[in-house]
Amino acid sequence: MPALPLDEAGKYVAAAYIVFLAMTLIYVAIIAAKVQKIQRRISALVQSGRERDQAD
Could you state, in order of their start, the residue ranges of all structural domains in the chain? Predict the structure, then answer.
């Protein structure tokens, strides 16, 4: 006999999938924000290097 009857287990499975999806989306959003920050820093460094080259 299962721990939960199958008719009651469905809502728990659905909730687990929703939580997993939400956590995955939050993780992807955090990584995307970090990538954007790194891209801005690289762009600033490239611009700084170009200005330094032009000054010389």
Answer: 19-56
Q: For residue 5, what is the DSSP state?
A: -
pLDDT at 6: 67
Q: CA 46 to CA 2: how far, in whole Å?
A: 62
pTM: 0.71
Gap between the Cα atoms of 47 and 11, Å rounded: 54
Residue 7 to residues 2, 4, 14, 24, 52, Cα–Cα distance (Å):
11, 8, 12, 27, 69
Structure tokens that stand for 1 in this block: 């006999």
Question: Which segments in the chain show pLDDT lower than 70?
Answer: 1-4, 6, 56
